[in-house]
């Protein structure tokens, strides 16, 4: 009897430990079944249901979704025992791609084809990526004229290990060159007018993508000139016996040409009719132009997006009178209601943590989905610097006014970069540089960079660490240490020189006021030494040099306000950035220098046509000593214009402003940038044409805004250069020509520099 009582009590206690007082089941164990290549800890890290927690069907469904979003599994099922509390996730792994091989490739190396492949070795099989890889390789061959190239795929999987080998069998065939192009069927336009629209020309290799673009160009040309009924009839294609030459004949049907008889629109209640009328740039009696129709529709869409009606739909209707050659244009507007965001999912991450992407989003669950906050979020993700591509998908939910948003990330294929270079500049002559950088340490979005620059006149070592979100809050932290040794020239000859050694550090922390504005505060400390001063220079500015030797420890606190509206921080095409810096150097901070320095910078970017960008930047600064017994500013903290970062075409320090340096300065840079080389959709090399103008002065009484060659005059320069995107740090090589030189001064300068002005 006693034994029976013990068994009953034990059973009751077991049941009590499994169920809470409310009847929900406590999880006693969590296991994963079906793993072959994925590590157990990787799966458990994305699961919210843990041992000791209450089981929930809602959380379980989210866990299944999280496991699937890892991209390693085809299927996930849940088994839960209500009695024991054992929870089991039964997974079906995708095959692990161990090797990708290529056979039959003669034109391209296996390494080149692997780099083009979207599906990578040491990743999990994805059919869509396999198909995309086939398209990319086919396109690669097509770009070289191999229009007949055939690609077959043979996957092989070891069922025991679930590891896969994928073999691409490539049959290249011959290159095809366009021998002849003819166009038939036109009456209104001449054949040569149509041929001018095409890039598929005799003597060029045939490329399917260019050919399809040509067909679209011809269609848009006709539909923008009133031919609404234009049609392209199947072409006639003839080859020579060995399929190396193509004879192409395009057959088109122009149809009738129409003029606009009337313009109407309906369905609008949210947007006023007068606002819609302003968007319509075409008028009654004009030749029908499809481009202007599309332009008007896009402007109307913008009006609705501004009012958060992101589901608005505009359907154009054309009522044609063929005999009269006229058309009635009607824009039918379906306003629909605003869409709200339900869940937001992040997919495609390999090394980056989910929160690093999520904290950049301008839109949160429960908020209205707009074109602005969606594309603004995508821009901010790109600005992280380690993301190669961003795509988004919307999924319907049970509520017609709510959609789930999924953001798919493709990370750049590097964990860190080591680079270097050799260049020449007029200031520093032969320059050697080296850099090590990582834009995403530990997948946390933290940045680390080490930069070294070495030449006859300069040695520069710098290390910087950036934490953009301290504890995932809108607070950033920047730590910087530097050691710079350089020869300072005060004339084109070598008789006015000294050596300047600066070693120090900077700490900066701040708060993001909103998505575009930041306010930062910081502290910096330096130790500056002036060595090997030439006798001739000491005679000219002895008092300033003596003061600088005594006041060799600038210690300052500063504040910085940033207002950044650029679309892409590494290579902006539109927007602007405005920065205001205020420094206070004081002996109360452990130094021996006392002054206030203010610098204001603004830069605007304007897209012109295609990818040509006009940028205009302004910078102004002033330094004021604030102690009566210290009315001077050390020469190493004054303003000096000229060189790569201010007014190009002049040597630094030698021609603009006082030999002693200036306490007031201002300059403007106007640049016109255009792409030269693209790589994987990004601009790798840019061309630059520039015009610089500005001046610097010792005090307000000396300001002279007249262009001239005197030191107190405003100086200007013109030039050109190239910018090479070396990972995330631009490398610039520029030639500048000064327009206001003194006689016997060098007229032009060559600059080799890292970063943007």
From TrEMBL:
Signal peptide extent: none
Keyword Chaperone annotated: no
Keywords noted in UniProt: Cell outer membrane, Membrane, Repeat, Signal, Transmembrane, Transmembrane beta strand
UniProt cross-references to InterPro entries, sorted A to Z: Bac_surfAg_D15, BamA/TamA_POTRA, D15-like, OM_assembly_BamA, POTRA
Main location: membrane
Compartments it resides in: Membrane
Annotated GO biological process: membrane assembly
POTRA domain: residues covered: 25-94, 95-173, 339-412
Family matches, as Pfam families: Omp85, POTRA
Record GO cellular component, one term: cell outer membrane
Annotated protein name in UniProt: Outer membrane protein assembly factor BamA
Organism this protein belongs to: Endomicrobium trichonymphae
């Amino acid at each position: 009897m006693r034994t029976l009582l013990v068994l009953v009590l034990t059973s009751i206690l077991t049941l009590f430990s499994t169920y809470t007082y409310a009847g929900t089941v406590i999880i006693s164990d969590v296991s994963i079944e079906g793993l072959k290549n994925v590590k157990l800890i990787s799966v458990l890290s994305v699961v919210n249901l843990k041992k000791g927690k209450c089981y929930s069907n809602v959380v379980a469904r989210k866990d299944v979704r999280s496991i699937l979003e890892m991209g390693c599994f085809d299927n996930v099922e849940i088994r839960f025992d209500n009695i024991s509390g054992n929870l089991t996730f039964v997974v079906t792994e995708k095959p692990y791609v161990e090797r990708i091989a290529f056979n039959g490739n003669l034109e391209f190396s296996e390494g080149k084809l692997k780099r083009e492949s979207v599906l990578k070795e040491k990743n999990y099989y994805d059919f869509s990526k396999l198909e995309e890889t086939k398209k990319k390789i086919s396109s690669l061959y097509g770009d070289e004229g191999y229009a007949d190239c055939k690609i077959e795929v043979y996957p092989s999987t070891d069922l025991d290990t679930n590891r896969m080998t994928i073999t691409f069998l490539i049959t290249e065939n011959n290159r095809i060159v366009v021998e002849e192009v003819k166009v038939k069927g036109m009456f209104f336009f001449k054949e040569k007018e149509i041929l001018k629209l095409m890039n598929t020309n005799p003597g060029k290799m045939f490329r399917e993508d260019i050919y399809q673009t040509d067909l679209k160009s011809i269609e848009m040309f006709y539909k923008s000139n009133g031919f609404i009924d234009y049609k392209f009839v199947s072409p006639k294609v003839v080859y020579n016996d060995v399929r190396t030459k193509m004879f192409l004949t395009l057959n088109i049907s122009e149809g009738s040409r129409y003029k606009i008889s009337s313009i109407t629109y309906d369905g609008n209640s949210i947007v006023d009719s007068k606002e819609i009328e302003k968007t319509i740039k075409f008028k009654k009696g004009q030749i029908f132009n499809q481009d202007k129709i599309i332009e008007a529709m896009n402007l109307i869409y913008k009006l609705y997006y501004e009012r958060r009606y992101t589901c608005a739909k505009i359907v154009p209707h054309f009522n044609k009178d063929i005999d009269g050659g006229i058309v009635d244009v009607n824009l039918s507007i379906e306003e629909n209601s605003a869409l709200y965001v339900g869940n937001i999912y992040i997919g495609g991450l390999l090394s980056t943590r989910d929160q690093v992407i999520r904290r950049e989003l301008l839109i949160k669950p429960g908020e209205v989905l707009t074109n602005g906050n969606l594309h603004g979020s995508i821009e901010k993700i790109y600005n992280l610097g380690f993301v190669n591509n961003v795509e988004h998908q919307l999924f319907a939910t049970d509520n017609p006014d709510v959609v789930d948003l999924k953001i798919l990330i493709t990370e750049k294929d590097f964990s860190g970069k080591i680079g270097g270079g050799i260049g020449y500049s007029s200031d520093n002559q032969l320059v050697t540089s080296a850099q090590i950088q990582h834009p995403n340490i530990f997948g946390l979005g933290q940045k680390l960079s080490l930069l070294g620059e070495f030449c006859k006149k300069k040695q520069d070592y710098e290390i910087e660490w950036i934490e953009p979100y301290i504890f995932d809050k809108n607070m950033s932290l920047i730590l910087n240490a530097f050691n710079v040794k350089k020869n300072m020239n005060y004339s084109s000859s070598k008789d006015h020189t000294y050596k300047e050694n600066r070693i120090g550090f900077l700490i900066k922390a701040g708060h993001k006021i909103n998505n575009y504005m930041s306010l930062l505060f910081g502290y910096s400390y330096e130790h500056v030494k002036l060595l090997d001063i030439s006798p001739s220079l000491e005679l000219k500015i002895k008092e300033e040099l003596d003061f600088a030797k005594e006041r060799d420890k600038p210690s300052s606190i500063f504040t910085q306000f940033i207002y950044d509206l650029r679309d892409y921080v590494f290579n902006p095409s539109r927007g602007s950035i405005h920065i205001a810096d205020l420094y206070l150097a004081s002996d109360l901070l452990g130094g021996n220098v006392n002054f206030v320095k203010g610098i204001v910078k603004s830069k605007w970017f304007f897209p012109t046509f295609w990818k040509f960008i006009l940028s205009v930047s302004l910078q102004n600064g002033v330094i004021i000593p604030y102690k009566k017994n210290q009315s001077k500013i050390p020469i190493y903290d004054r303003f000096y214009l000229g060189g790569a970062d201010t007014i190009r075409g002049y040597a630094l320090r030698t021609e603009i402003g006082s030999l002693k340096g200036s306490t007031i300065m201002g300059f403007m840079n106007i640049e016109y940038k255009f792409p030269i080389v693209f790589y994987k959709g990004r601009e790798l090399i840019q061309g630059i044409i520039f015009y610089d103008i500005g001046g610097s002065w010792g005090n307000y009484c000396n300001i002279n805004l007249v262009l001239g060659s005197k030191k107190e005059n405003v100086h200007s320069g013109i030039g050109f250069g190239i910018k090479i995107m070396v990972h995330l740090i631009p490398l610039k090589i520029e030639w500048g020509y000064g327009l206001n030189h003194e006689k016997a001064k060098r007229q032009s300068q060559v600059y080799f520099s890292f970063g943007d002005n």
